[in-house]
Amino acid sequence: MALPPDRPAAPPDHLAAQPGPDHSAQPEPGRAGQDPTAGPVGFDLDLTLIDSRSAILTAWSEVAAETGVEVGLKAVEGRLGVKLEDEIPFWFPATQAEAVAAAYRRHYVRLASSLTTALPGASQALDAVRDLGQTPVVITAKHLVSVGPSLKAAGLTVAEVYAHVHGLEKGAVLTRLRAVAYVGDTPQDIAAGRSAGVQAVGVPTGSFTEAELLAAGADTVLSSLLEFPAWYADFRRGSGRSAPRPAGR
Fold this sequence. Notes:
By secondary structure, the chain is an alpha/beta fold. The chain has two domains: 133 residues, 3-Layer(aba) Sandwich (Rossmann fold); 63 residues, DNA polymerase, domain 1, CATH 1.10.150. Strands 5-4-1-6-7-8 form a six-stranded parallel sheet. It has a two-stranded antiparallel sheet with strand order 2-3. Helix 9 links the parallel strand 7 and strand 8. Helix 1 packs across helix 4. The protein is elongated and about 55 Å long. The N terminus and C terminus are likely disordered.
């Protein structure tokens, strides 16, 4: 079934996002200073800071109903965290990818306000970084058009957003920012942190367990972001940091 005409295409990722600017194309290096624990702290968005599971799966249900194509929601759920463009080929041919992405985002933006919440400890985690004089940064596979409504629905505010990056692309952003840590819920997030040589902090609030995140190489796994402020305070004192390792090791 053909997809109906959609609104104009979403803006490219290098445009400013709400509530903060997006720099996914070419982020500028940060200044970590002499203290190796001082610098930006990156956070994944979906299932790390926000519970967007219902919004994502409901948007996929709407796409399935609109197109007449059966989409396996359990399979989608198991891959939460990937770019939309990497999920679409499991269900649609390449010739329909652009139209499906536009339809999904149309539904997602409509649904985000009522189906998105902050995960426990999210606001406190962002504040913990700010309270010690550093910058929390969102680095996400989500498209920029979906980030602002998601953060607004969750009541979270960040000054900087790097959108539409996944896996080692996130690692490149962390390196350019001279970040000191990355917090995420997937093995790919852990790989991003390790590739940048920063502290890779896992939270099993998505589809992966503590054991799976540790097996992926996490330096530490917190049960939720409620534990982040204490971990971060220890990290800044030097007691929460593992021995330095080269990037990618």
